[in-house]
């Protein structure tokens, strides 16, 4: 938007316009809508009149406001609408372009826009409006929230981003009128956010312009030097370019191929980045110039390629077929680099007229090129899948900063192309892994992934995909996402889906644990049954929630499971509320619970078997395993932490926080191995570690971690292991094997560990 985006704050004082207005203001006012009308010849008379009405409304709303260069503020909305007219977008979007600053700067309400111009136009304008009226802690948070709103509006209606990019383009063209102190921030924001979005949506002309303008204001001196160098090179090579063009025309005429040839020069920013990335001087950048060859049919693009390769020598490895495999943003062309006259490298791009429109205008080609049937594959290519995925991420991510983290990784589509087992081609961002691929198919496929094969070979799930890979994903109905996946996934979609599933799973487990703990606490107070959602308990739950400050029953139970609330305090309040309604404690149950309160077989104890994930943790300080006497500590916000009875850490906590301890017992059949600490003192010598490891392997105890101790002498060495065992009996077998091993002097369990 004009003012807030570039901070070209219009002069909004109540003072009248100057008596001698700036000549530019007079010229702009005279041109005003008349200049725009000439670009709207594709609209019907009815639509043209609607756009004219929007102009009049905007002109009146911005009356008295000036831009920094002295022009009436209305010149900015007109320029934005003119850019949108270049894309031939519809009347509603043009009206929104003219009105896009009305909500933000002029006190116009959304209701007023709906009444005057209809809901669709008002929604477009609202999608473009910044969140000025909300308070944020930081500029970054403000930008992230504004960016999220823009992206979500764009996902629902891509016209929003087209108007936004037209708005940013005009602001960058006039950035010279803004105080120099603001150039860096505005140009950086354009380069980091808006140019990548334009590229992602295939708006390549806008993308190149935004990059060059950002470069001009971020690095004015370098821009100026490079501009002069390119101008000199252009004059030196004018004869060369003319010679190449003439030879092309002769060759294509001889082959009977009808073509339209146009020269293409690399942008200053792309030359600068190539020099910077490859540490080249300007003289070493040889492919500054290129040609676009526009042909009638796809087959003629390949014929033209043959003609060119007969005319000039191709550079090995410099041919790319983006027609057979389009880029993520819908771009299609054949690319080849040839050695032209005087050994100068020249790049050629061959494409059809339809491809050219898409290459320059991306999603805007929907309006520019009248081949917009919904069943055509082009509609899939124009970035629409990426836009829709933003809504999926939004459903799972409410934090603006986290949303931006998810989305920005998808803004730079350096793609690899892979195949499904059935031969379907899929484009993925470079660096994407098998898990990213699985989530790109469907979230259920990603959640259930257990293994994968690439080109019929079993590979780890973190394997990065390469061009041409044939990827097959293996799933299991009971599988769930692994938190470790967050360390290597590349796409925002995969990251948000994994986080959402883990949060949901942790929430569910904590709620279940909270219900168990509250049920146990109620039994200790003589109440047998847990009050459910029956109508007779509705009033009781309402009163209890008001007492605890929780919004829902589920939230209260989750807080109990996470240790944020003490179960027996909530239970005592619940017992009072039940007593008020006539339900008294059972004296027999109360007596029995108190009698068995210190017994390990208490009916109210929590049973653990190792299947718990987020809601139950096994303390690293003492590493309890099945067979140990254990007790549970409800840490604040971290769920249930299980300690051994002898653990010194647990004893200190009991002294300070005894009400947070509950009875915990092992299930009859734990479902996994548990970690135990072992200290092994052995004679130092060649192969000693291998012999110790072999003794553990013979006992089927998996080594999880190993550390060399620092207490040994020159003659002996101390190893500290963390091993996976089923229970205390299994650990005893492992220790027996170790003590029988020839180099081992002593092996014992390490019950207290500070670290691993």
Query: Termini, distance in Å?
Result: 55 Å
The CATH architecture of the largest domain: Orthogonal Bundle
Contiguous runs where pLDDT drops below 50 for at least 5 residues: 2-31, 131-136, 369-382, 597-604
What is the CATH C-level name of the largest domain? Mainly Alpha
Chain-averaged pLDDT: 77
Gross geometry:
extended
CATH superfamily of the largest domain: Hypothetical protein af1432
Structural class, by secondary structure, is alpha+beta
Output the radius of gyration.
35 Å
Structure notes:
- The longest helix has 33 residues, at 492-524.
- It is extended, with a radius of gyration of 35 Å.
- It is built from 31 helices and 20 strands.
- Mean pLDDT is 77; it is low at 2-31, 131-136, 369-382 and 597-604.
- A hairpin with a 5-residue loop joins β7 (415-419) and β8 (425-429).
- With 756 residues, the chain is α+β, with helices and mostly antiparallel strands.
- Strands 1, 2, 3, 4, 5 and 6 form a 6-stranded mixed β-sheet that branches. A 5-stranded mixed β-sheet has the order 12-16-14-15-13, with helices on both faces.
- The protein folds into 5 domains: 2-201, Hypothetical protein af1432, CATH 1.10.3210; 225-373, Beta Polymerase, domain 2 (2-Layer Sandwich); 384-500, Ubiquitin-like (UB roll), CATH 3.10.20; 504-666, no CATH class; 674-749, ACT-like. Chain A, domain 2 (Alpha-Beta Plaits), CATH 3.30.70.1150.
């Amino acid at each position: 938007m004009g003012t807030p985006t570039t901070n070209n704050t219009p002069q909004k004082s109540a003072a009248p316009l100057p008596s001698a207005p700036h000549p530019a203001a007079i010229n702009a006012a005279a041109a005003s809508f008349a200049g725009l009308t000439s670009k709207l010849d594709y609209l019907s008379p009815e639509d043209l009149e609607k756009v004219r009405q929007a102009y009049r409304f905007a002109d009146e709303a911005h009356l008295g406001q000036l831009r920094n260069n002295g022009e009436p503020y209305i010149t900015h909305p007109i320029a934005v609408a003119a850019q949108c007219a270049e894309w031939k977008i519809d009347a509603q979007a043009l009206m929104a372009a003219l009105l896009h600053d009305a909500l933000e700067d002029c006190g116009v309400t959304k209701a007023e826009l709906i009444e005057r111009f209809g809901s669709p136009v008002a929604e477009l304008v609202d999608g473009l409006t910044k969140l000025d009226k909300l308070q944020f802690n930081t500029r970054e948070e403000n930008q992230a929230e504004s960016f999220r709103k823009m992206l979500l509006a764009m996902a629902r209606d891509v016209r929003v981003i087209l108007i936004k990019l037209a708005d940013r383009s005009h602001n960058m063209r006039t950035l010279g009128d803004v105080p120099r102190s603001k150039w860096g921030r505005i140009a950086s924001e354009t380069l980091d956010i808006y140019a990548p979005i334009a590229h992602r949506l295939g708006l390549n002309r806008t993308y190149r312009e935004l990059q060059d303008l950002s470069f001009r204001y971020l690095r004015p001196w370098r821009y100026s030097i490079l501009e002069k160098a390119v101008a000199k090179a252009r004059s030196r090579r004018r004869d060369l370019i003319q010679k190449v063009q003439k030879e092309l025309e002769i060759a294509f005429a001889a082959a009977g191929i009808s073509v339209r040839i146009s020269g293409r020069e690399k942008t200053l920013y792309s030359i600068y980045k190539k020099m910077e990335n490859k540490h080249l001087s300007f003289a070493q950048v040889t492919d500054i110039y290129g040609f676009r060859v526009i042909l009638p049919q796809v087959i003629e693009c390949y014929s033209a390629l043959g003609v060119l390769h007969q005319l000039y020598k191709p550079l090995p490895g410099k041919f790319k077929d983006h027609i057979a495999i389009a880029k993520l943003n819908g771009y299609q062309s054949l690319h080849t680099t040839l050695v032209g006259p005087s050994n100068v490298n020249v790049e050629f791009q061959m494409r059809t007229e339809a491809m050219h429109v898409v290459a320059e205008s991306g999603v805007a080609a929907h309006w520019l090129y009248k081949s917009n049937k919904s069943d055509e594959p082009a509609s899939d290519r124009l970035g629409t899948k990426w836009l829709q995925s933003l809504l999926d991420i939004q459903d799972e991510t409410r934090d603006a900063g986290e949303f931006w983290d998810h989305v920005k990784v998808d803004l730079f589509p350096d793609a690899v192309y892979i195949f499904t087992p059935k031969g379907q081609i899929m484009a993925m961002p470079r660096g994407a892994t098998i898990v990213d691929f699985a989530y790109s198919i469907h979230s259920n496929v990603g959640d259930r992934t257990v293994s994968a094969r690439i080109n019929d070979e079993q590979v780890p799930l973190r394997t990065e995909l390469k061009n041409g890979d044939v990827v097959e994903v293996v799933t299991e109905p009971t599988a769930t996402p692994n938190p470790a996946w967050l360390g290597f996934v590349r796409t925002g979609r995969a990251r948000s889906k994994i986080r959402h599933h883990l949060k949901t799973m942790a929430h569910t487990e904590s709620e279940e644990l909270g219900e168990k703990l509250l049920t146990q606490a109620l039994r200790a107070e003589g109440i047998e049954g847990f009050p459910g959602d029956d109508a007779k308990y509705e009033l009781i739950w309402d009163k209890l929630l008001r007492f605890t400050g929780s919004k829902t029953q589920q939230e209260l139970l989750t807080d109990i499971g996470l240790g944020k609330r003490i179960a027996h305090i909530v239970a005592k309040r619940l017992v009072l509320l039940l007593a008020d309604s006539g339900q008294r404690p059972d004296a027999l149950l109360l007596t029995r619970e108190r009698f068995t309160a210190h017994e390990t077989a208490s009916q109210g104890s929590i049973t653990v078997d190792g299947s718990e994930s987020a809601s139950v943790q096994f303390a690293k300080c003492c590493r309890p395993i099945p067979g140990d006497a254990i007790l549970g500590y409800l840490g604040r916000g971290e769920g249930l932490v299980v300690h051994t009875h002898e653990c010194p850490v647990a004893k200190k906590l009991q002294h300070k926080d005894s009400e947070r301890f509950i009875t915990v017992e092992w299930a009859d059949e734990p479902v996994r191995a548990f970690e135990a600490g072992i200290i092994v003192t052995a004679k130092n010598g060649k192969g000693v570690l291998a012999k110790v490891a072999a003794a553990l392997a013979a006992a089927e105890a998996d080594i999880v971690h190993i550390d060399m101790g620092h207490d040994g002498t020159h003659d002996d060495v101390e190893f500290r292991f963390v091993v996976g065992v089923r229970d205390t009996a299994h650990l005893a077998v492992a220790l027996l094997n170790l003590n029988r091993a020839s180099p081992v002097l002593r092996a014992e369990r390490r019950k207290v560990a500070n670290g691993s």
